[in-house]
User: What shape does this take?
Amino acid sequence: MSIAIDKNKCVGCGKCHDVCPGTLIKSDENGKAYIKYPRDCWGCTSCLKECPVYAIRFFLGADIGGRGTLMHTEKHGDFLDWVIEYPGGDTSVIRVNTKESNRY
Ligand code: SF4
Ligand code: SF4
Assistant: This one.
């Protein structure tokens, strides 16, 4: 379970650093985010949801049935889209209305 950060997209805002519960994400000499020990990531997905430029992707590895599928999130108004990218190039989207979620 781990993430990958696309340094070409990263704008160095630091939001992913602030939310990672394991303090796993650091900045390189150019201010771009990277994860030093990817195997320490426990997949909370907090960093995905904070990244404003969708630079962080989460590996849905074979151990959780994803066979290398990638996932990232995109915010569209009140909606949070969970975008799944399959190895063959297909994608699917799970859309969550954030105004309606997490209500108890
Ligand atoms: S998924 Fe969670 S634990 Fe893993 S790097 Fe992102 S914020 Fe940290
Ligand atoms: S939240 Fe995204 S843009 Fe901001 S530092 Fe992290 S990877 Fe870079």
Summary: The helical segments are 15-19, 46-50. Residues 3, 19-22, 24-25, 35, 41-47 surround iron/sulfur cluster (ligand 1) (CB under 6 Å). The CA atoms of residues 16 and 51 lie 6 Å apart.
